[in-house]
Specification:
Layout (H helix, E strand, L loop, with lengths): L12 E8 L16 H9 L5 H16 L3 E5 L22 H4 L6 H4 L6 E6 L11 E3 L2 E7 L5 H9 L3 E4 L7 H12 L3 E4 L3 H9 L5 E6 L27 E8 L5 E7 L9
Parallel strand pairs: 1-7, 1-8, 2-3, 2-7, 3-5, 5-6
Antiparallel strand pairs: 4-5, 8-10, 9-10
Length: 271
């Protein structure tokens, strides 16, 4: 697919909204998760005083413009690269495959009066052992899985009453996932706060519409350190994704908020 073309205009708007260093690093090294207390402490120390207010302003602007009803993360936010599918889960797989491998959206979640938004995680390999389900502040957990996801993991999600969508065969198909989120859940805007792997996949698939970056006055470096957009390199028949700068906000302590719109080119006509 030519870079910048969008495969389906009926998909939700996708906004990548991430904090990073000036060299586009989104964590300190590949094996250090920002959920780890010590890593988070060091990461926060890189942000000057204006970072919190700038982050709040970015969230308010996204809410004003698009009223996003879903935040998107990858499983790599919660587990390291070497983590495989969960084993030894406290469940018995006693449901037929044609039931397990269909979307699971419990009525008690959809109909809860304060249900408002989805914390959405791509976990096609079944790697995250959830101890939170949502229900606080209007947020609920939604897991994106595939037909190759272990049945034991899907049975675990059902036991825990965690919503999931089956979107893809061997892996999660992001375009299908976004389409299903719009059709089944009414989501018209998704904000990706994910790491480079998922953001890179969204970019390569032509699914990103807008990019909001909070840039810290720090450089991290390191070969292999995750960046804003990781993933496969461009092939010879692919072109970089072009952007249009919408706005820049700078602070005297070095923080910068950049907002870009992706320039979507019309797909080539079918032969």
């Amino acid at each position: 697919m030519k870079q910048g073309s969008r495969p389906d205009a009926g998909l939700p708007r996708v906004v990548v909204s991430v904090g990073m260093s000036v060299d586009a690093r989104v964590t300190l090294s590949r094996d250090r998760l920002l959920l780890d207390e010590e890593t988070a402490r060091v990461w926060r120390s890189l942000s000057p005083a204006s970072a919190q207010a700038l982050g709040d302003a970015r969230e308010a602007e996204l809410a004003r413009l698009y009223q996003p009803r879903a935040v998107l993360e990858g499983s790599g936010t919660f587990v390291t690269d070497d983590a495989g599918p969960l084993t030894g889960l406290p469940v018995v797989v006693d449901q037929p495959a044609d039931q397990l491998y269909t979307d699971f959206l419990p009525e008690e979640v959809l109909e809860r009066p304060d249900h408002d938004k989805w914390f959405t995680v791509v976990d096609g390999r079944g790697r995250v052992n959830w101890d939170m389900k949502g229900g606080s502040g209007g947020w609920d957990l939604l897991v994106l899985v595939a037909r190759a996801t272990p049945a034991e993991y899907l049975a675990f999600l059902r036991k825990e009453r965690i919503s999931y969508l089956v979107v893809g065969e061997e892996r999660v198909d992001l375009a299908t996932a976004l389409r299903r989120m719009r059709e089944r859940l009414g989501v018209t805007c998704v904000v990706s706060k994910a790491g480079g792997g998922l953001n890179g996949a969204l970019l390569r698939a032509g699914l990103v519409d807008e990019i909001h970056l909070l840039v810290m006055p720090a450089a991290i470096g390191g070969r292999g350190t995750p960046t804003l957009f990781d993933g496969p390199e461009l092939t010879h028949d692919e072109a970089p994704t072009r952007l249009r700068l919408i706005s820049v906000r700078t602070e005297t302590d070095g923080m910068v908020w950049l907002r870009y719109e992706v320039i979507h080119e019309a797909p080539a006509p079918a032969a």
